[in-house]
Amino acid sequence: MKPVARWKIINSEFAIDNRWCKVRRDEVELPNGVRVDDYFVNVRPDVVLILAVTPDREVVFVRQYRHGVGEILLELPGGTFYADRETCLEAAARELEEETGYIARTWTHLATLYDNPVKDTNKIYIAIAENALEESYQQLDITEAVEVVRVPIAEIIEKIANGELTVAGTISALLMGLKYLNYFDIIPRESEPEKSTDSVNSDPTQND
Amino acid sequence: MKPVARWKIINSEFAIDNRWCKVRRDEVELPNGVRVDDYFVNVRPDVVLILAVTPDREVVFVRQYRHGVGEILLELPGGTFYADRETCLEAAARELEEETGYIARTWTHLATLYDNPVKDTNKIYIAIAENALEESYQQLDITEAVEVVRVPIAEIIEKIANGELTVAGTISALLMGLKYLNYFDIIPRESEPEKSTDSVNSDPTQND
């Protein structure tokens, strides 16, 4: 097997260097000596996603238009930030208040994930906000229209299963965060699964 | 509140139109009449991620270098495809065999998610492969180096919690898929959570 190892950047320049879009074109050398002269990387600011839970066992969501896919989607609140200007929890508190008007008492940085590590540079920080209350007001800029939607924790699994929640970062943050907060148990079953037993065959020789 | 509604594309052109990178620059009109003349969208092919489970209750992972973030990561196998050329399950079977050498008997399209619906056009199709066996061999191209790693289902939750699994699409597919297959139970708790009770305060007046 070829070794799994980092690539070496031989040369790097910006193909687009706009305030809203930075695309880097890298010339790289692979561990096996192969050179690729146009590997494109989107240089993007980090993102913080906020799992805010109210005292009434509800999660605070936002519903807004997303132009990349041209759809109106239900997601966790969030936004971009720069780690040299604010911490991820400072950014989380700011974004939660601006997008939803909610303020939370207890903040935890749960995890740092990636969206698309193949093509994008950014991380997704997952912040947990406990005891969130609507004590402020939305502060949106002129290009933003955001509907705040509270969803009972008991309905989250159904909304993931039925396709109302479709963004991978939001789904990961919900399942990891609600487990961390002990609102969910996630329990591996010891016994054989019940689904698809007709087509599961543990003896490979029967398929030859 | 401003209405949550789709934007209208007034004009659209490619800022980069390369085989490996297509960046569209849209001039858009928002529902409130505001115009934005440089909204950038990455036009990307759809992705299929494969949750392949073996008869020994293991999940098939791949470990490889990801140049966007410059890290070696553990992820579910997957790849890009074009819906006008093959179905997501045909693409899934092809990618699983090419990347890992595994072939599966039972295939299910579980869900269709988004990575970054703000900036990217692509969807992520989640495919479930049951009764996967190593009956073929890796077929990698010269730029690929992929280590195949099998992980027992019982260790998945720990690997998400400890940060060994960090990609949102992979985490979503694992938690949704292992629940769908009845390997996991995800159960909302009825009682109050045990964590952070010191700082949770259900009476907002006490915080004034």
3D structure, described in words:
The structure is a homodimer of 208-residue chains. Chain A has 208 residues and is an alpha+beta fold. Chain A has 2 domains: 8-42, no CATH class; 46-180, Alpha-Beta Complex (Nucleoside Triphosphate Pyrophosphohydrolase). Chain A is 15% helix and 38% strand. Chain A contains 3 helices and 11 strands, in the order βββββββαβββααβ. Chain A has helices spanning 88-100, 156-161, 168-180, and strands spanning 8-17, 22-29, 35-42, 46-52, 58-66, 71-75, 78-81, 106-114, 123-130, 147-152, 184-188. Chain A has a 4-stranded mixed beta sheet with strand order 7-4-9-8. In chain A, a hairpin with an 8-residue loop joins strand 8 and strand 9 (123-130). The longest helix of chain A has 13 residues, at 88-100. Chain A starts with 7 loop residues before the first strand and ends in a 20-residue tail after the last strand. Chains A and B meet through strand 2, strand 3, strand 5, strand 6 and strand 8 of A and strand 1, strand 2, strand 3, strand 5 and strand 6 of B.
